[in-house]
Design goal:
- This protein is α+β, with helices and mostly antiparallel strands.
- It has a single domain (22-109), classed as GIY-YIG endonuclease, CATH 3.40.1440.
- 33% of the residues lie in helices and 22% in strands.
- It is built from four helices and three strands; from the N terminus they run H-E-E-H-E-H-H.
- It has helices at residues 22-25, 54-62, 86-97, 99-109; strands at 33-40, 46-51, 75-84.
- The protein has a three-stranded antiparallel sheet.
- Mean pLDDT is 82; it is low at 10-21.
């Protein structure tokens, strides 16, 4: 099994130590991707995705711009990890999209 380095990002958009925004704190990683899980506030739905700018992507989900999630808005960010290079981010996203793997991550958040 391939191991992935994990750098969790606080869902509030704040770095827990330095209190900079995630975007400011991670400028050197602007060419990298983050893998995230969002939870619908209207249904018991979780969605796994990847993005360079997670806050912008969350806003797109909440604006109904994703055909897979627009029926379940609004969403909140519950998990984010990275940064990863593109290939590794896709592998990690694919891994987390499997039900049993997503369930393990969600259980660890409780």
């Amino acid at each position: 099994m391939r191991r992935f380095p994990v750098y969790a990002v606080a869902p509030t958009g704040r770095d827990s130590v330095h209190h900079h925004s995630v975007r400011e704190h991670l400028l050197p990683f602007s060419f990298m991707y983050f893998v995230y899980i969002i939870k619908s506030n209207s249904e018991d739905i979780h969605y796994v995705g990847m993005a360079k700018d997670v806050q912008r992507r969350l806003a797109e989900h909440n604006a109904g711009k994703s055909r897979y999630t627009k029926a379940y808005v609004p969403f909140e960010l519950i998990y984010c990890e990275g940064p990863f290079e593109t290939k590794m981010a896709r592998e990690r996203e694919k891994y987390l999209k499997k039900t049993e793997n997503k369930r393990k991550v969600l259980q660890s958040l409780k």
